[in-house]
Amino acid sequence: MKNTDMNQDLPRATPQSRGTDPAVLDALLDDVERQDIELHSLLVWQDGALIADAYWAPYAADRPHMMHSVTKSFTSMAVGLAVADGLLSVDDAVLGFFPAYAGPVGDNLRAMRVRHLLTMTSGHARGISGGAWRRLASSWIEDFLRQPTPHAPGEVFVYDSAASYMLSAIVQQVAGRTIHDYLGERIFRPMGMSEAITWDIGTDGVNTGGNGLSCTTQDMLKLGILHLQGGLWQGRQLLPEDWVRQATGMQVRDVVLGVFTGDHYLGPDEAGDGVPASRREGYGYQWWRGPHGSFSANGLFGQYCIVLPAEKAVVAFTGGLEDSDRRVHTLIYDGLRPALGAGVSGRPGAEALEARLAGLRLKTRPGMARRRAPGEAPRRSWRIAPNDQGVEAISITEEANAVRFTLRDAAGSHDVLAGFGRFLETVTTMPGGRLHHSYQPAEGLTVLACARWLDGAPGERILEMDWIFLKTAFRDTVRLHVRDGALRLTRGVNVNSAERVLPELTGRPTTAMEREREREDG
């Protein structure tokens, strides 16, 4: 039976009713536009009510978004519940939960406690990224326990999604169910979080813990509100207040975040490509400490839930941003934060702000409606030269005001349908893990795509497509350069943990015999 409580909305209020000038929010939107920042959503909660919710279409309130490392702060709640239920202690030995482990055990592994996983001080020299483990088919638990631990637990901070996975595995051991189910009963349903929440499963049948959770931006905002309120929600103490204080407090002061290589977070003394590690304000139990007494849940590529206790406020946003891009943080900490509750100018502005929020859209390229020239074939196909992506053939078929792009590899055929002058929404299995932090679910991803024809060099036509993968931060630009029948294809992405552009593909037109074979193969 459908649980209607999962659709509860948050109370809303005008900014000026909370003593905040709407002009400040309007100016923030001006800065986002002027600096060409790719935001997907921005929600502001102040003093018991939602005073602004912005979504840049096609992103919307009911669309879930991959949260990456924001997931860790959800995992922290599951540990807190298990501690409150008497199922475990933060001082329990990690090895004690995995008696079947038969690998090497050194003194540092033997000394590792649950609190060391919570504070990212497990003793490892490098942290494992979810992007690396998603390519690993064997046990992630086994892999974690076999990693070298050169440091004594508690001594060195090394950011590690694998530590969060181990927390998920430990809670599942003692609670007898996944942390998704555990939190669903104890937190998600009582708080009226959306039914859209999903959570990836690792190779051990365990929720991924450090990443892989998808939810709406309002779900993420509620995570922050619950912790702002000390675990209290509508008169019910869902999470122990003492746990919230520990989880969001300063557990580790000397925090140096190592360089991210895509597969690992390097140790604090390592430099990646000459880039030094960065110093941060501090760390709690899977929560970051921030300036002005704030704490936050942070996700790669631009998902953040920032809690500002002094202002009784929470700001949550999603986007497609590099991890080093701190422009939105500057706008929030230096612009919005001091203005919350600081008074209004008396100038009208709430209605104009509301209208602006309702009309926000992602920037798109102009002229996306240009179609093929008269006389051009509606379908073309190419045999692709040997390549490291395993692509065998590519074809394009023009349909009613749209083009169907088809790629064939050893796994089969994969389609994207792109509209001319409009975005079309479909689900595609198009390979893209190399550009998408190793995310490539077998069931495919929702994609919104549009296309246009451009003139290139003399005699060259270019089909340019914009692919927005709606549940993620990823947005691909794909260009097919056609000249004298031959094909040259490029594909790049807005953000990624590793390469941003795939190696160029080239192809020659298929022969009549090859096209017949393609039809026979389906």
TrEMBL record:
<dbReference type="InterPro" id="IPR001466">
    <property type="entry name" value="Beta-lactam-related"/>
</dbReference>
<dbReference type="InterPro" id="IPR050789">
    <property type="entry name" value="Diverse_Enzym_Activities"/>
</dbReference>
<dbReference type="InterPro" id="IPR012338">
    <property type="entry name" value="Beta-lactam/transpept-like"/>
</dbReference>
<dbReference type="Pfam" id="PF00144">
    <property type="entry name" value="Beta-lactamase"/>
</dbReference>
<feature type="region of interest" description="Disordered">
    <location>
        <begin position="1"/>
        <end position="22"/>
    </location>
</feature>
<protein>
    <recommendedName>
        <fullName>Beta-lactamase-related domain-containing protein</fullName>
    </recommendedName>
</protein>
<feature type="domain" description="Beta-lactamase-related">
    <location>
        <begin position="37"/>
        <end position="317"/>
    </location>
</feature>
